[in-house]
Amino acid sequence: MNDRKIISIILEEAKSLPERCEGYRDEVVAAVGDILEYERQHRVAGTNIQQKITDKCNAAGRFLADRRGAAGGDVD
Amino acid sequence: MSDKYFNPFASVDILVPAEFKDDFARYCQTGGRAVIDYSPFPRMVDLWFLAVCVAARKGLEPAEMDRRDTYKIIDGSIFSSDPWRVHTLMLIAIARSDEIGIVIEPRRMMNLANGLATAGFPHVIDMLKDGSAEPIWNLSEAIELLEREAA
Amino acid sequence: MKLIRAQFSNFRLLRDLTIDFATDPKRPLTVVRAANESGKTTMLNALQWGLYGDTALPNGGEGMRLHPIDWDAEADGGRVPIMVTIEFEVTSIRRSPTGFKETRKRYRLIRSANEDVDGHRFNRTQSSVRLFALTDAGDTPLPQPEAVIADELPFELRDVFFTDGDRALSFIEADVAVSTKRDRVQRAIRSLLGLGVIKDAMRHIEKTAVEINKAARKLGGSEELGTIANRLDQIETDRERLIAELTDVRSSHANLDGQIVDIDRRVTAALEKGDREKLASDIASTRKEIDKIDVQLEAAVKEHAALFRGIDLARGVLGTALAPAYAKLDALYDRKEIPSATIPVLEDRLGLGSCICGESLSDDNEAGASRRRHVCELIEKSRQADDIQKMVTALYFGAKALGPSTDSESRAFREAFGAVVEKRDGLQDLRDENGRKLRALELQLDEMPDTDVANLRKARREFENQKERVKYREGQIDTQLSGLGSERAGLVERRDSLLREQSKGARILAELEVATDISGVLRRSYDRITSEELAKVSNLTNEIFLDMIGADPDQGALIRRAEVSKEFDILVFGPSNRKLDPDRDLNGASRRALTLAFILALTKVSEVEAPNVIDTPLGMMSGFVKRSALRKAAGLSSQLILFLTHSEIEGCETILDEMAGKVVTLTNPAHFPRMLVNDPGTPVRQVLACGCNHRSHCSLCERIDDETVASVA
Q: Which domain of life is it from (chain A) (predicted)?
């Protein structure tokens, strides 16, 4: 329900996240958007939601670890 | 009061020695569904702040924080809506250090405040416990007495 | 979601009926005009049965016949097929790289069941439901129709979307416990604001963090890391179990509250039956008084605690401790010893390469370089002095409130505390007095020979005991959870620092950070929606409500504002902010208006596109109030479907001209010859529909005297 409203609030809240590496905030925002979409699909179709969400977090974590590695340290 | 007031403590941590952790949980309403008469402080920072004031009033020496095992209750951004707390901390710092210049050193001021709070805690805990009623009444009466003595 | 069309087959009086609903955003109102006993409530039930099945029927459908009462089993067979078909449209919005993407989908839902009729007895088979997506390519059957409905029109929002005017008060009715009403309001708000999805996501993210933690355990290299990971794992399992138990315990708590309220009501009824009205009303009024005092006491205790975060406390405790600082500031001020703005002059000289006295500031020679260094130091010092000046000036003027106090300021804490003591003691005395009074009254009850009352009293005591046990358990779980919470915080800190030390730990740490960040964004969004949006619902409820009843001179003078509190109570206030009891102090029209206002505000704020189907909403309203309620409702709802009697429509015709996209009239042929002009000539009992609107009638729907019919209604 009222997807537009929820998404815009989440986008705003995500702005206060630390930019742990370049592009991190956008990465997390995209992940949250996808996760909510998974939840919605899961309500209708009963998917393997836990696995999908864990995969999403792992991917974002890999992104963060790789960028940090490339930057030679934590830019937090 | 304006919440746009410049708060130099915004990113400085408010620290409490680990040994007082249980007291904070017991006397502050933060988090749980506390019974107010037994947990009179609305937030942890209110207990911390009272401890700073009590130490300042009683002329206690600030505790040495570097060697203590501490934990952070919150950062100073919590003062943004209460400029008078920022002012109080600055005035205490000036009075204690005898230096006007300390006002541009938020970390030093907070270190002093944390030290004073640590020195003041045992006194505040006594104020909460001494008396025959619930902590909220014991504390109220103790503060009433302090105010009378000052007048 | 918008309803497009509904078809009813053999659902009580609705043997064969189709209704089209208005979907035009400019004219969102559908009016189903029908006299009493002409199928309005039946249609409301049928729509809900279509969407949710038997659970949506009164009493869960238990013993409720759905087939037409005059079904001729011999002629038409002993098995009656009952069917409701609903066509609806759903708009979904999702984020896409180019912005928001909106898609509209049409569905057809068919629910059917059979009733086997045997004389007066009948047996209904379990209903089955199918859902088809309607596309240009044809109708595609979809799996899990219940899930689609649960997503679009969640069952817990039934009270918001489907409202029966006569019992439109589920959010404010006095007969149920406060916790039950709160629960209904809270569930409605959370569900409509989409908080369920966020909550689910938060739960899943937490589990993900547990999974990542397991990966940390497998990392090896550190025995401590493994131990911590194991313990964290265990903590999560325990927390999950405790949280589930807490939910159960809280719901039994609410349930017991409801049971106790119910028993009290039955005791009152039994007493009234036994000519003991006086005792019954004394008990009821004493309980009410106690409830009122308890609320005031709670507020007074909060006021007491608020003393410990105020400036009066600081002033009282500090006494003269700040005096040295003030003396220093005053001296600075008096001496006007404020550092001068020397920086631009010094920078100028550096640029020129020579001092004011003519000496060189050039780097080329040793003496010049040394002088240059000296000027740079001076600039740095002045900069600092400038900062100090700014800060001290702000402090000097800003901290006046803490300065040497006036006589009254030096007593401020004592005075505030004195006022709190007086209030708390006064209220406590009043509470004790009423408590004693109630116990005395209850003693009278216990001594009554009436066995009904005695049994109810016994049951009440048992419920009270159970409630005590439940409350005790709630406390235990709370404590355990908070203990686990702090243990977890400590362990997480230690684990993260161990991970930092390991080469392979970086990746796991990054994953944990992501999980924490996502969880934080979700939690903050959840909190924000709950608090900010709740405030919006509250303001809009107030606005709509006052607009609706504003023209009522009787209520207009009494009611000042309505509010949805943070505790999810719907409150109404009179002059001087006096709290009114919606059930006792408001008349029927205002109570309906209040419920309607809440429902409309909630739907509006959530920006949810959903129908509001309301049966006889204007029943107890008259004149201007009725018109303003109707206009407001039609203006706010994205699709408003009203079942109205002829008398409700009276006086509102021009509004319907303007806002009604569809009007249909239902007629019960059984009303001939008493109320209908012509004999519809139908051999069976069934409601018939015609396309007549609020201003017209045909040979089927023409009534003998609408005035008379209306007065009966």
A: Bacteria
Of A20, A44, A68, the CB nearest to C144: A44
Highest mean pLDDT: which of A31-45, C2-16, C458-472?
C2-16
- Residue C6: give the domain boundaries: 2-21+42-169
Looking at this predicted complex, what is its ipTM?
A: 0.94
CATH code, domain with C105: 3.40.50
H or E stretch including C115?
strand C99-118
Is the residue at A39 inside a domain?
yes
Q: How far is B15 from chain C (nearest CA, A)?
A: 15
Q: Distance (Å) from the C-alpha of residue A73 to the closest C-alpha of chain C?
A: 10
Residue A26 inside a domain? The answer is yes
Among C404, C431, C454, the domain-final residue is C404
pTM to 2 decimals?
0.59
Is the CB of residue B12 less than 8 Å from the CB of residue B106? yes
* Chains in contact with chain B (at least 3 beta-carbon pairs closer than 8 A): C
Q: Which one of B123, B140, B148 would you mutate to disrupt binding with C, by most C Cβ within 10 Å of its Cβ?
A: B140
From C143, C510, C522, residue closest to A64, measured CB to CB: C510
Parallel, antiparallel or unpaired: strands C660-667 and C2-11: unpaired
For residue B145, the chain C residues in CB contact (below 8 A) are none
Q: Is B142 on the interface with C (CB under 8 A)?
A: no
Q: Hey, what are C142's tokens?
A: 């979809």
For chain C, the average pLDDT equals 84
Say what the pLDDT of residue C141 is.
87
* Full domain range(s) for residue A18: 3-71
Q: Per-residue pLDDT for C566 more than 80?
A: no
Number of domains forming the structure of chain C: 3
Number of domains in chain A: 1
Q: What gap in Å lies between CA C400 and CA C406, rounded to an integer? A: 12
- What CATH number is attached to the domain comprising C622? 3.40.50.300
Instruction: Tally helices (H) and strands (E) across chain A.
Output: 3, 0
Task: Report cis status (omega within 30 of 0) of the bond before C673.
Answer: yes
Say which residues have a Cβ less than 8 Å from residue C38's Cβ, sequence separation at least 6.
C666, C667, C668, C671, C687
Let me know if residue C693 belongs to a domain: yes
